[in-house]
Amino acid sequence: MKTLLIPALLAMSITGLQAPAQNLKYGPASAPTGAEQPIDEIGLIINDEAITRRQLAQEMETARKSMPKDLKLPAGEIEHQLLEHIIMNHLLAQIEQKAGLDISEDELNAAIAQIAERNKVSEQKLYAQAQRDTGLNRDAFRAQIRKSLAQEHLKEGMVGADINISDRQVDEYLAKLAREQGSTIHVQDLLIPLPDGDANSRAKEVDNKIREVSQALRDSGGNLQQASARVAGAHYNDLGDVNLGTIPPRFARALAKLGAGEIVENPVVDDDGMHFLKVAEKHNAEGNYTLAEADVSHILLRTNDGHDDASQKAQIDAIYRELQSGADFASLARRYSEDAQTAAKGGDLGWVSADQFSGELAQAIEKQGVGSISKPVKTPYGYHIILVRDRRQSDKSESVVREQIKRNLYAKALDEAWQQRLQALRREAYINIR
């Protein structure tokens, strides 16, 4: 017997998600006339939910179908992995029930239509593919999509509210793009030398000088040369055309977010003093940036927090061998991937920027050739196999790029927070294996 006693799940208690075990009934509702039906014994307790041996055996057999072929693991380790899969499914179902998530038929139908369109097949063909790859009939496949949609809502509800992407994060990414692309802008600089003394002793004088410069800029209508004449000790420099890829990052960050005619909100400080920078002109009149994007699919096997991941490595290697033997990527993703949001789509992530993923996965996406399948890639949350179907360079305006950067950074932070929450969910659950 394996028993784990732990505290409630983070800020969201899952106690009471299911009826207390002593109030549950097991076995058939009624026994055949003249015969006494034995009670189906409890085989597993997950928090307050009791699962009978019969139900557990059925779920183990269903889960077994999702294990890759040619899996080189001892039988006992395979059984352990199947059991972990079942436990995680029940924990998620408990949270979904507690949250009262309800996916409407309209939302479900729209999601299925979108998957079919993305895969360039009819909905009937999509159902047929699911039946072939996973053994799920039409109703079971729809139930799986409903579950994945519920998990998307669950992810947003449980961790999304805690994620805040700041303007500084967007500025830094935009500056990185500008440096990489060698964007050139015409820059003017009003320099104020720093007063003598350490930061504390000169703080009041610095504040007064910033207020003085700000007033001079307002009085001059933003003309740095005229403003410099109004402030004692100020130096005006027309820096001419500046390539953002060749200047220090803190200057590039400040300048990249500015439009033509705009002045930094706060001065950039270096050894020379305080720099009030102005973008006099952007030579790319439209202010466009180029984003490198890839059309990507993946297969994910999650690692269990605190456990040896040798079995996951053996499984992902077995899947990779199937792919190397010519198996269809989308079929294996539907059958094996543990990313509920993409598995039903054949692993489809859509058009993505590599930087919205963790470092290891981002590098794999950037390096993988079009049409090729990567070897298994290890990240903090599991093993991935990726397929890069295509690449493109998208020219977009600065405002559109900023919004996309913010979405990408949010998606990355959301996924990382969700993986951590899943690990905590499993770690903190009450599990009694009988």
Chain-wise SSE layout:
Elements: E1 2-4, E2 42-46, E3 49-52, H1 53-64, H2 75-99, H3 105-118, H4 123-134, H5 138-159, H6 167-181, E4 184-192, H7 199-219, H8 224-230, E5 235-243, H9 249-256, E6 268-270, E7 273-282, E8 288-302, H10 310-324, H11 329-336, H12 340-343, E9 348-352, H13 359-367, E10 377-379, E11 382-397, H14 398-427, E12 431-433
Antiparallel strand pairs: 1-12, 2-3, 2-12, 4-5, 4-7, 6-7, 8-9, 8-11, 10-11
Helix pairs in contact: 1-2, 4-11, 5-14, 6-9, 6-14, 7-8
What is the rounded distance between the termini?
5 Å
Give the overall shape, derived from the CA principal axes. Answer: elongated
Instruction: Give the strand line-up of the largest sheet.
Output: 1-12-2-3
Q: What's the story with the biggest beta sheet?
A: 4 strands, antiparallel
Number of helices: 14
Kindly state the mean pLDDT as a whole number? 81
Number of strands: 12
Kindly estimate the percentage of residues that lie in beta strands according to DSSP.
15-25%
Order of helices and strands: EEEHHHHHHEHHEHEEEHHHEHEEHE
Structural class: alpha+beta
Give the C-alpha Rg. 29 Å
**Uncertain stretches:** 1-38
> Helix share of residues?
40-55%
